[in-house]
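User: Could you walk me through two proteins back to back? I'd like the raw sequence and the structure tokens for each, with a short line separating them so I can tell where one ends and the next begins.

Assistant: Of course. Protein one, sequence then structure:
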Amino acid sequence: MNTAIYPGTFDPITHGHLDIIERACNIFDKVFIAVALNEEKRPLFSLEERQEMIRTNLSDNVKIEVCSFNILLVRYAKEVGANTIVRGLRAVSDFEFEFKLTQMNRHLDDEVETIFLMPRQEYFFTSSQLIKQVARLGGEIDRLVPKNVSLSLKERFKQ
């Protein structure tokens, strides 16, 4: 089975993330959506909340499995049987960071490949961090995130 892992904090998941997941599902037989337990990023939503937001939007996709990890990504990829890491690239500014990360992962385990997928053009400018900032200030986010995420953000930032 051709299996990939798409890691991220997903705090919260956006339409850009969902677009990358859809593209990955067109390539791979199975895609693990691996939610990082990265407390250094100080996520707005708990690990369980982030996983539930993802599951709600992907429940009808049999190729998807939502999981979490807190070890080296290449090690976790091996544990779940994934031979490819999927990463999203929005703009040239993402490339330098992603390049370094890919090279380190290759250093750690050169049997795990990384591929980069780009979301649709309308999502190039979005990031979870930017969406949270807009939501915190009462701006319009409904076209950038799924409905359940929009409601969760509005509830979280209710004043």
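----
Protein two, same layout:
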Amino acid sequence: MKAEWIVRDGRQDLLLFFNGWGMDRRTAAWITSSTPDQSRHDLIAVDDYRDFTLPAWLPAVMAGYRSVDLVAWSLGVWAALHSGLEGISRAAAINGTPFPVDATRGIPPEIFRGTLDSWSDVTRTRFERRMFAGSERDPRLDDVRSRRSSAEQQEELRSIAEAVDLVEAKPASSWSFSKAVIGGRDLVFHPENQHAAWQGTETVRIDDMPHFPFFHLAGWEEVLA
């Protein structure tokens, strides 16, 4: 995994953001810049799940904060649960589940495998249309689109698929998500599957929110509240 500082102002609390598959630091940077007065946290963004090893420096950094909160989006939800992190105070999931490849609680296996096998610049464009559904003409898209190559994204998705198979029967972390935010227009993790996955967990549904949620949320604090 790759972890990068987005905000490092010496605040007392830290927020870890586990990004979606194929994305880069621009997502977290844009959220922070668009809501500059809405967070009390320093911020580290985690992405690139081609290697599921956390940077060695991260646990020591976390130990220096009063509290550590976590927000995860999409496949970052599963990645966060299996990252080996401890000491999480609050955790919120957005448009993702602990069961990333699952017919009724995640992405159906045939769709996941089809995405992996066919991934290219052409299919990436189609996927982004589904991910940003309803926001395709939003000028903010240029600020949040990943700059990683399609080949690198495919390699990452293959690594996720292999890791899901390996750890499926193993316990996840000692902490759990206390809240799940579900987009009613999510075309990747369908909302019905998300509701099925999060039974027993507080859920908030935003009916007009597509898979990319951050044009519909007013910053980190709204997610964690």
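The chain has nine helices and seven strands.

Let me know if you want the two compared in more detail.
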